[in-house]
Write a structure and sequence with these properties.
Elements: H1 2-11, E1 21-23, E2 29-31, H2 36-47, E3 54-57, E4 77-81, H3 82-87, H4 95-103, E5 108-112, E6 119-122, E7 127-128, E8 138-143, H5 147-157, E9 163-169
Parallel strand pairs: 3-5, 4-6, 8-9
Antiparallel strand pairs: 1-2, 4-7, 5-6
């Protein structure tokens, strides 16, 4: 099925693939469970022989421990090995996705949507970032403000550090 994805990528910059369902060798549908979206992204990148795969999360990288925990701020990894990522206390990356990447000798990166800074996960070495980088809010235009659009608007405005609603278009204001 890689040929279909390759054709779609010729005319589209981004493809969104639901990550919790897959087909086995007999064509039966299987749920991938927790971490399925990470595993799906890594699997597709591997099968397509992609030069790079970035997992998008709600944090700007992997930290030594949960940065929301009170006390000393943890350092953010610039690079981390698969083994060390697996050992982190809060599993932001799911073990089955990490195991797959390690088995395929596949490095990947981890970042939030609107940030150019990331953590590289792979075989190389472990190092930390010099300083933390706050991501810029993602600028969003909403088309439609009905029941669903209004719900999306309300949620986005609750997260001003991550989203900036710059315009809304409605048929009947």
């Amino acid at each position: 099925k890689c040929d279909l994805l390759e054709r779609l990528l010729e005319t589209n910059e981004v493809l969104v693939v639901p990550g919790f369902v897959a087909c086995d060798s007999m064509g039966a549908t299987n749920l991938l469970g927790r971490g399925g979206s990470d595993l799906t992204a890594l699997f597709i990148a591997y099968r397509m022989r992609a030069q790079h795969c970035r997992l998008l999360k709600d944090t700007d990288g992997l930290y030594e421990w949960d940065p929301k925990r009170p006390g000393t701020k943890p350092k953010c990894f610039a690079e981390v090995t698969w083994e060390q990522a697996m050992a982190l206390e809060k599993r932001v990356l799911q073990p089955k996705a990490l195991r797959f990447a390690q088995e395929q000798n596949m490095a990947f990166s981890f970042a939030c949507l609107s940030n150019e800074v990331f953590t590289k996960v792979g075989a190389s070495r472990t190092s930390f970032r010099e300083t933390a980088v706050e991501p810029k809010p993602l600028r969003v235009t909403l088309l439609g403000l009905g029941t669903v659009g209004r719900g999306v608007y309300d949620r986005l405005t609750e997260l001003p550090d991550r989203f900036q609603v710059v315009a809304c278009v409605a048929r009947t204001p």
